[in-house]
């Protein structure tokens, strides 16, 4: 039968909802992220500090175990806000390493294989595509930040002979809020940088550079100009100050070097907005090739 004799009609059957399409993208992105053995190794390495903190909590609440392991020593372990701040600080860097490895796998492969036009030709928007990748990366980083941190908090509340939960509820809030801020920033920044670099290893290096190089420049500028505002380029310093305040731990830096909360949040929002602009420019259903 000739082609012109065919009768073509639009599809009138059931269609999937927009949330379910985003979930499909997130599910396949998670499968891609965790299909690498290196991802599993990094995840296992990120759990080692959690195991150490778990043992310390057990020793702090078990005099018998402390006496046996420490051989009757008088060492006293304080499980307080400062302890959980150390937990957050250790997972801070491990989450950065994991994000630098996973984020390029979620976007760079699509760019290198010219798969974006095919993906976006389906009933999925650019926002849905980015949101699906964001959910996958955010979920992966959650497994090494606020999830184990809150489990440690719950274990401490369970084993403590004192009414520890009510007295330290602010610590739990600080753990959750601080972790969510950090991994949300890492996720959007990692996806934005990965969308501009087709080579995965180069994208990994760019993510590290985006965090470490401005931190060094900001530290040098603050020392030379004798001003605290250079710390606004230092993501680790900003997040550490914010975590201190969220968890109620006194800052260990000089008072004249403390940044206002509004300035820190404004800088974090600015980084997110720049990342969104980068994604908006790069994530397209077509690719322009200049001859």
Report the helical percentage: over 70%
Low-confidence region ranges: none
Shape, per Cα inertia axes: globular
Distance between the termini: 42 Å
Mind summarizing the main beta sheet? Answer: none
| Overall tally of structural domains | 1
Radius of gyration: 23 Å
User: Secondary-structure element sequence?
Assistant: HHHHHHHHHHHH
Strand content: under 5%
Oligomer classification: single chain
Mean pLDDT over the full residue set: 86
How many β strands by DSSP? 0
> By helix and strand content, what is the structural category?
mainly alpha
How many H/I helical runs?
12
Structure explained in plain terms:
This protein has helices at 18-33, 37-60, 63-69, 81-112, 116-120, 126-142, 146-159, 164-167, 169-195, 200-225, 235-247, 261-282. The chain has 291 residues and is mainly alpha-helical. It has one domain (17-282). The mean pLDDT is 86.
Keywords, separated by commas or semicolons:
291 residues; mainly alpha; 0% strand
Task: Describe the secondary-structure layout.
Blueprint: H1 18-33, H2 37-60, H3 63-69, H4 81-112, H5 116-120, H6 126-142, H7 146-159, H8 164-167, H9 169-195, H10 200-225, H11 235-247, H12 261-282
Helix pairs in contact: 1-4, 1-6, 2-4, 2-7, 4-6, 4-9, 4-10, 4-11, 6-9, 7-9, 9-10, 9-11, 9-12
